[in-house]
Amino acid sequence: MKFQFINIGKPHDEALKRAIDDFTKRVNNYYSAEWLIIPPVKNAAALPEAELKKQEAKIILNKIKNDDFLMLLDETGKQLTSVELSNFIEQKINAGARTIVFLIGGAFGVSNEIKQRADFIWSLSKLVFPHGLARLILAEQVYRACTILRNEKYHHA
User: Fold this and answer.
1) Deepest of 2, 28, 56, 153, by most Cβ within 10 A of its Cβ?
2) Cβ-based neighbour number of residue 147 at 10 Å
3) Each residue of 39-85: pLDDT tens digit?
4) Environment class of residue 67 by beta-carbon count within 10 Å: exposed (0-12), middle (13-18) or buried (19+)?
5) Which residue(s) pair with 140 in the sheet?
6) What is the distance between the terminal CA atoms of the chain, rounded to a whole angstrom?
7) Helix (H, G, I), strand (E, B) or coil at 141
8) For residues 92 and 22, what is the distance between their CA atoms, to the nearest angstrom?
9) Which helix H or strand E contains 70, and what residues bound it?
10) Residue 137 Cα distances to 19, 21, 108, 134, angstroms
11) pTM for this prediction
């Protein structure tokens, strides 16, 4: 099993990088995990939103495989508790998923093409977070899910 975290945006902010790296390293104690930070499209600020999303979609679709399980992080998605996330991940593992891709889209979200490709749309919160904070929350929650699956003491229910 492998977790791949994909994000369109700038590299991790140094203030958050250590924490994101720490949780990613912790996840690697259970399953392989890696980040792919896709730089913003050139001239992104000059492009209409729809065109920007279209260009980002091409890049994203070239980075994921047909058999990857794609979890799109989007404010309109289904909210899960930490325990529900761990159960969800366990179900995917038991179903034979080899790679779960967690995708944080660009500044304007993702195209409908990406939403249609997504196997699951997950909302961290009804709130909108800056990308760096969303990355940190994602890494921590995946780590928390791993500890829940192993009945370790990190999560207190």
Assistant:
1) 56
2) 18
3) 989 888 899 999 999 999 999 999 999 999 999 999 999 999 999 99
4) exposed
5) none
6) 26
7) helix
8) 24
9) strand 69-79
10) 10, 12, 19, 5
11) 0.95
